[in-house]
From TrEMBL:
This is Carbamoyl-phosphate synthaseATP-binding subunit L. It comes from Natrialba taiwanensis DSM 12281. GO terms for molecular function: ATP binding; ligase activity; metal ion binding. Its cofactor is Co(2+); Mn(2+); biotin. Residues 499-523 have a biased composition (Low complexity). Keywords: ATP-binding, Biotin, Ligase, Magnesium, Nucleotide-binding. It comes from the Archaea. Residues 495-523 are annotated as: Disordered. InterPro entries: ATP-grasp (IPR011761), BC-like_N (IPR005481), Biotin_BS (IPR001882), Biotin_carboxylase_complex (IPR050856), Biotin_carboxylation_dom (IPR011764), Biotin_COase_C (IPR005482), Biotin_lipoyl (IPR000089), CPAse_ATP-bd (IPR005479).
Amino acid sequence: MFDKLLVANRGEIAVRVMQACEELGIETVAIYSDADRNAGHVEFADEAYNVGPAPASESYLDQEAILETADRAGADAIHPGYGFLAENAAFAARVEDAKGITWVGPPSEAMEALGDKTTARQVMQAADVPVVPGTSDPVDSAAEVRELGDEFGYPVAIKAAGGGGGRGMKIVRSADEAEDALESAKREGEAYFDDATVYVEKYLESPKHVEVQILADEHDTVLHLGERDCSLQRRHQKVIEEAPSPALDGALREAIGEAARRGVREAGYTNAGTVEFLVEDSEFYFMEVNTRIQVEHTVTEEVTGIDIVREQLRIAAGEELPDAQADVDINGHAIEFRINAENPAAEFAPTPGELETYVPPGGLGVRVDDAVTEGDEIAGDYDSMIAKLIVRAPTRERCLERSRRALGHFDISGPETIVPFHRLMLDDATFRAGEHTTDYLDSEVGADELDAAVERWGSATGSGGGGESASEHELVVEIDGRRFDVLVEDDLPRVAHNGGADAGAPSGSAGSASSGSNSGAAATEQVAAGDAITAEMQGTVLSVDVEPSDEIGGGDVVCVLEAMKMENDVVSPGAGTVAAVPVSEGDSVDMGDPLIVLE
Ligand code: MV4
């Protein structure tokens, strides 16, 4: 096994990798940019090195700086995490060629073959894996596009060979759109991937996105760890992922898992990887292979009990996978919610800023992967994901209930987050039924719903995230042994007078803003400025002579207190209406305790 590993990444995935290293007895090296000097992954590592300024192109993507750092630190392995250099075959090849350093990932040749989507399709076809009807050779002319449109029926998709994740894809709905779409797909391919090669597939309008997790060692064992459903996406960004997929039955699950195994075996693939499929009308079609650990690997870990990052490290070190396919069991259900610092009510715009409150939930079946703490600055330099909440339960139904509980206790303020969006989805009939497809969010969930969710559950509204507006503050009061959270509006008078003008505050009045009743009603919602008649001494309530909504006058007896072996009438100092009676016969009260609250 390795002695010291450099993690060429940041944030929660860097911490995730270092946790696996710690359990294997591997020392860890972090790299960081100027923006990340105090970041969580830097704190977690045994050693940390600055590799450059905040922009990723000058730090986390600086291949030379990272290789030099590995050398300087004496690291014998590099794990790339996801994003940044993770799927860069040229960087993987450089690490493979560096003396004494192992690349924790697939062979660079397999990355290269699968990175080109036309060769990936050819590999899959050779392995008898169903692909979307289309071409596996480059397409050059609009005439060819139209021929394919006639053959498969419109719409068709023109895709960049170097593409993936939604970039460089153009949909052609009729023959006359072929010309423009072809030009624009080529332009995007050239701009994003330095490769104008494109190919054509039949376009499926409303598929599910189902992906299979693979582990393959260097001793000819290829395992699939079941599938994940990532159909809930917004503009090609996954937001909620789950395992297993609610859309597959046992036969389809078996078939798609076996197809994924055949495909990566054909590619000469080792380490962890994901084979993505589109599923429509109980048919599945290969889409692409992700040659890296993915954000959503966690849900697979939760239902299989397999530590995927640990296996990546063991595979890279030449060790054998511990299990045969028959030993991989899927148990229960897991859902991952990405906690992004974005505002769902503003088209999910990133919301950088200070993380003023950060108290994640816990308890049975709740996992939080993160690299932040309260008080951290959420910078705008990198992606907006600040944590992942992963919830596991024996069934999907119970996982949804547990998710409601966990999200309801995820206390974050400062940046707006997509927690309100997740809570909206937990009430969404289509999502709850598991019937959502990849086009669902963008076409069916409207701005009004999102606005309402943020209003109801967002961190800026007192009820959800515990925030309060400038003119309010929260008080905790205890009345007769029951705790009440009271929202006090500062612009209300501190002492409100009862009944007639100038009656004066009753003697011994608590005189402050509000109180609850002891009836069990939702006292927190009352923000009334009431007066209380309080006990002038410690004692026992012998009788209560009024009840809520009684009109009383000055001098009326409202209750009788026994104190110092004497019965003492408690009289009202003025007129008013009884709002609440927080005490009852037999209660012991302390000096200052409210006995009667007036409106
Ligand atoms: C498709 C497709 C329908 N038919 N290809 C989007 C990302 C890129 N990896 C491929 N994508 C798609 N390819 C054919 N032939 C629909 C999508 C697609 C999609 C796929 C997965 C998850 C979300 C998506 C959202 C829109 C479109």
